[in-house]
Amino acid sequence: MTVKVLDSPPNLGSLYSKALLGGVRPGKDGDALPGTEYVREGVKIAPAHLADYNRVCGFRLSDELPVTYPHILAFPLQMAMMTEGDFPFPLLGMVHVANRITQHRPVRIDEQFTLRVRAENLRPHEKGRQFDVVSEVLPVGQDSPVWTDVSTYLRRGGGSGDGSDAKQLTPPAPNAVWRVPADIGRKYAEASGDRNPIHLHALSAKAFGFPSAIAHGMWSKAHALSAFEGRLPSAFTVDVKFKLPILLPAKVAFTSWRTDDGLAFELWNARKPKPHLSGSIVAL
């Protein structure tokens, strides 16, 4: 695999412009993922940025990073990779269907580390094709990651089924009901850099087929995990499947329960028994 080392975070503004241009070019639909790994070394945490992220997602301030926070540090590298000419699919229209994070130990705010991002495992899906974007955090001087994020994306088209995955896993008896404001997409975009137009305003979301702006999937995962603060082990895997989008503004129900190997949780539409997200937490 070729390694591409970046001296600074890629400019997300220019990458979104590049993504828009790539989305209108016909015929971009290849059969192979790029063999390039994107790397940033000497990454440091900006405490003010972390504090903003924690407030938007509902985490308490701490010297340890929330398990979802390194995802937004890796996001610019993911964008840089997926907007390159050798990437087989246009970024616009891809669906983030799942995210799995494994934390071998908490990452502290005062640590320096290396970020690595690559794409792998292109495979069929009943609605088209899917692949994984793998992101890793390696502390300085270490060869093994202490944090790994696997984001699964779906490229629609050419599948053999409807791929419906919006069935309930447990009766909706909520532990809590949350009101999600209309501007949560803009607030999370400021904290994360993810300014996909489907999350920002109703008008821009309608251009992509949504009746209103929708919440970021990674915000919904982070906010759900904030409900477990103080109860999570230091080493664990949290695996989430994104189902129906949260149309903003929204009222969502949060449900959690114990399983044989850990915890499970869901976010629901509080007015209908339809899930937005289902997840599990398993200690290592």
Structural summary, described in words:
This protein is of the alpha+beta class and 284 residues long. It is 22% helix and 34% strand. It has an eleven-stranded mixed sheet with strand order 1-2-4-5-6-3-8-11-10-9-7, covered by helices on one side. Helix 2 runs antiparallel to helix 4 (184-192).
Q: Give a quick account of the main beta sheet: strands, pairing sense, barrel closure.
A: 11 strands, mixed
> What global shape is seen?
globular
Order of helices and strands: EHEHHEEEEEHHHEEEE
Low-confidence stretches: none
- Tell me how many strands there are: 11
Quick description:
Helices cover 22% and strands 34% of the residues. The protein is globular, with a radius of gyration of 18 Å.
Tags for this entry?
single chain, 284 residues, alpha+beta, eleven-stranded mixed β-sheet, 11 strands, 34% strand
Note the topology.
Blueprint: E1 2-6, H1 12-24, E2 36-43, H2 47-57, H3 69-82, E3 95-103, E4 113-125, E5 128-139, E6 147-156, E7 176-180, H4 184-192, H5 202-206, H6 217-226, E8 236-242, E9 250-259, E10 262-269, E11 275-283
Parallel strand pairs: 1-2
Antiparallel strand pairs: 2-4, 3-6, 3-8, 4-5, 5-6, 7-9, 8-11, 9-10, 10-11
Helix pairs in contact: 1-3, 2-4
